[in-house]
Amino acid sequence: MKKIVVLTGAGMSVESGLSTFRDADGLWENYPVSRVATHEGWEADPEYVNNFYNMLRKKLVAAKPNEGHRLVAALEENYDVTVVTQNVDNLHEMAGSSKVIHLHGELMKVCSSRDVDNPRFQRTLSAPNLDVAPGEKAGDGSLLRPFIVFFGEGVPNISIAAEEASKADIFIIIGTSLVVYPAAGLVQYVGRDVPIFLIDPNPVAGAGSRRIRHIQKGASEGMKELTQILAQSCH
């Protein structure tokens, strides 16, 4: 069974109503990155940071996977599929994808602020209990914090993702540009003869190379087109 690795970014979840961080009306416009997504911001005002992610969780619970998510999940009928996502939402899982690697953490999880990656102190929140209360503690006595990779922190899953990328027979990129790390970095691990498909409605620098086929559409329409291309190549 051929192996497909799908790398997704913020553009994957736009049709589900989750605003991207970097676009004109994105979240960074209203909330300074330095206050909500850095270790310094957390140290300065953990309550403000937790309130921001409490709000995002409520938005996420109201969101549903779009057709793009569902079509990615449907690839598992014919391929061994691993999804590597820069997104912190759980829409891939909700759509039915069984192997998802989160590079930047998971919004629905909280963890120890002293020992972020220790699974013993991680827990998954679900509706209606989506809030971290001021002063709420993890199992090790440190403040509970969002299980999110803040700017400047290491990305523990990047080496796992790179290994998956190196085994891909087909590599698909959806809704992330080829200039933003780690997307740009992962492409370098893909075998030389492996076809790469890029689904993004915007022009993308670097998409002109011969091995990258750019489908200039949003996630759902792009995945529809790609599903047809893959079906034809099988016959």
pLDDT < 50 runs, ≥5 residues: none
Approximate shape: elongated
Roughly what is the average pLDDT, rounded to an integer?
A: 90
What separation lies between the terminal Cα atoms? 15 Å
**Beta-strand segment tally:** 9
Radius of gyration: 18 Å
Please give a structural write-up:
With 235 residues, the chain is of the alpha/beta class. 31% of the residues lie in helices and 18% in strands. The chain contains 9 helices and 9 strands. The strands form 2 sheets. It has a 6-stranded parallel β-sheet, with helices on both faces. It has a 3-stranded antiparallel β-sheet with strand order 5-4-6, covered by helices on one side. Helix 6 links the parallel strand 2 and strand 3. Helix 5 packs parallel to helix 9. The longest helix is centred in the first third of the chain and has 17 residues. It is elongated and about 55 Å long. The two termini are 15 Å apart.
Main attributes of the structure:
3-stranded antiparallel beta sheet; 235 residues; alpha/beta; 9 helices; single chain
Question: Which helices and strands, and how do they pair?
Answer:
Blueprint: E1 3-8, H1 27-30, H2 33-36, H3 39-44, H4 46-62, H5 67-74, E2 80-85, H6 91-95, E3 100-102, E4 105-112, E5 123-124, E6 144-148, H7 158-166, E7 170-174, H8 183-187, E8 196-199, E9 212-215, H9 219-234
Parallel strand pairs: 1-2, 1-7, 2-3, 7-8, 8-9
Antiparallel strand pairs: 4-5, 4-6
